[in-house]
Amino acid sequence: MDKDQLMYPISSSSSPSPSYSKLPHHLHHVAEQMKHRRFAFQTRSQVDILDDGYRWRKYGEKSVKNNKFPRSYYRCSYRGCNVKKQIQRHSKDEEIVVTTYEGTHSHPVEKTTESFEQILRNHHIYSLTL
Which residue windows does the record flag with biased composition (Low complexity) (predicted)? Predict the structure, then answer.
């Protein structure tokens, strides 16, 4: 594993969310949980935003308790896609950027980037349910 880039997904899902109309009523909560899965990546970087191949629109920023760096909020700009991400520098090591993704994209990646693909190839994924 490269010492400059670390990836720690909080939870993961590689398949798109199922349609509610095809699920029995008692499984709707499972589909809702799948839409809100999260991944968190910690990357040692001088820049805050990792190019992941998707287009993002910033919709907010706020100060966070016990951290001098603000947290920025983004939505995927693809029409109908509800994926969000948050970006913030680590409070104890300002060279580390924590990027948290929520949801599953409803469309293919717009452009592949070697840097992001390299990160995914070189790191182990750890999953936890929130």
Answer: 8-21
**pLDDT in the model for residue 111:** 73
Q: Would residue 95 count as lying in a domain?
A: yes
Q: What is the pLDDT of residues 45-80, one digit of tens each?
A: 888 877 888 999 999 999 989 889 999 999 999 999
Question: Whose CA is closest to 101, among 47, 60, 46, 42?
Answer: 42
Predicted structure pTM score:
0.62
What Rg value do the Cα atoms of the chain yield, rounded? 16
**Among candidate residues 113, 116, 83, 115, the one with its CA nearest the CA of residue 101:** 83
**CATH code (residue 48):** 2.20.25.80
